[in-house]
Specification:
single chain; 213 residues; alpha/beta; seven-stranded mixed sheet; 7 helices
């Protein structure tokens, strides 16, 4: 279900349009709603017998907040409906504010990076960072302290293990990052490496966070 937010967010519109085209090519047609539609309109479009994946055509925090309120209200009135929300990487900056809402909406967010503050390993890393540098780790998405550490470990470990064949064999490198996984490819010029790795961060109704890689 594509939710039209009547916004000027080109990124959200581009993504939702591309997804709609891909679904059409696979004979999997989408439905549409307006963000401000009433409960009857939502009930008419959502299917009580199947899982409903909801995607906004706007990545803004404003539309996210409105949609979360709509989903919570709809779930209270229609508890048997199976709903999932597809989100944008920008929303991860709102995790502290919307964490419970992400769980309620069974949210999936695609992002190449995610720093899970609930992970014990990450908590140990943050305590060690703040102890060694005597400053608090700067929040954000991505967290640059973890980004730098993971990137350094990836290349240093890879070069140490594979030497000048690292580029060809990097897929065999075992990774255990705090935030970023890596899968680098050269661009057409051959001068730039781009990280092609992407994952889904899944906030489950059981209040767990799963990384789908």
């Amino acid at each position: 279900i594509i939710v039209n937010c009547n916004s000027n967010d080109n990124r959200g519109k581009t993504f939702s349009h591309a997804l709609t085209q891909e679904l059409n090519q696979r004979s999997m047609h989408s439905k549409s709603l307006l963000l401000e539609d009433n409960d009857a309109a939502y009930e008419n479009v959502l299917d009580p017998t199947q899982e409903n994946f909801i995607l906004l055509d706007d990545s803004s925090v404003r539309s996210l907040s409105i949609m979360m309120a709509r989903i919570k209200d709809f779930r209270q009135k229609h508890p048997t409906y199976n709903l999932s929300l597809i989100g944008y990487a920008e929303w991860l900056n709102e995790t502290e504010k919307h964490l419970d809402n992400f769980f309620v909406a069974n949210t999936y967010i695609a992002s190449p990076y995610y720093y899970n503050v609930l992970d014990e390993k990450n908590q140990d890393f943050q305590r060690a960072y703040e102890k060694n540098f005597q400053v608090y780790m700067t929040p954000g998405n991505p967290r640059y302290a973890a980004l730098g550490f993971d990137l350094g470990m990836y290349f240093l470990s890879g070069l140490n293990k594979f030497g000048d064949t690292f580029e060809q064999k990097q897929g065999n490198l075992q990774q255990n990052p705090y935030q970023n996984w890596y899968q680098f490819e050269r661009n057409t010029s051959g001068l730039i490496f781009t990280n092609r790795f992407v994952q889904f961060i899944h906030f489950t109704p059981e209040k767990k966070i799963e990384l789908i890689r």
